[in-house]
Amino acid sequence: GKVYKGHLNTGPLVAIKRAKQGSLQGALEFKTEIELLSRVHHKNVVNLVGFCYDQGEQMLIYEYVHNGSLRATLSGKSGIWLNWSRRLNIALDAARGLAYLHELADPPIIHRDIKSDNILLDDQLNAKVADFGLSIPLSGGRDHVTTQVKGTMGYLDPEYYMTQILTEKSDVYSFGVVMLELVTGKLPIEQKMYIVREVKEALKETGNIYNLVDRTISANTVTGLKEFVGLAMRCVEDTGDKRPSMSEVVKEIERIIQASDFRAIADSTTTSTSFEGAGSDVHPYNSSSSSFGI
Where is the composition biased (Polar residues) (predicted)? Predict the structure, then answer.
């Protein structure tokens, strides 16, 4: 569906997401977002203000997040420059939002589509996790669900892709890809190059990760880069049991920020395509895989 900017009679700006009429998938995502977002409240998760369901019209009304998506900012479209300290704080904010969903929401929630397009930045550049249309609650004490594979190629957990078993660690993989985006400024799949594979090869061949840093930031300012990239690579391990939990990721990023002597800002003051299918026993990002042109 489409997203509109508007304001309530009480004054606040809002974002209005209008589902495409007659779309079964849109109706399912509409219902999912209402059910999940009405139960979650965290400063790093976008706030659902209300909804409309009337005569076939389906609209979700969110708080308006002024600076748009992280992807738009990294691509230069927003006109906002992110220095290294801001990137670290954005990573921390998003990690806190995800950790809340995994460990403090009741029931826990797997987002299933974490990507830089779904991380929004407010007027203070605080990050908020958004777009819960594909999300799944882990009710009844379950730690996984078996489900049709959905998500965005480039961010999609290869273990989930190959087994159809979705866990919180699938979000951790996607978040690791976002961390690498923050370092490089690049899309996860760009000109048939896969960001995770490129970083792995650079680490293996030369160990020099400074050549990977986004050219808009000075390499001599990226204190804690080695630790940050190391954490990202743990997040993108092929198997979930080797990945950290999101609460562990939060602690590690906090440690990196403290060691780098960066203060949280104001308290913290493509070619990637959607995927839906039955999964495959072939790794989605291996160089031998030709299914997605990578």
Answer: 285-294
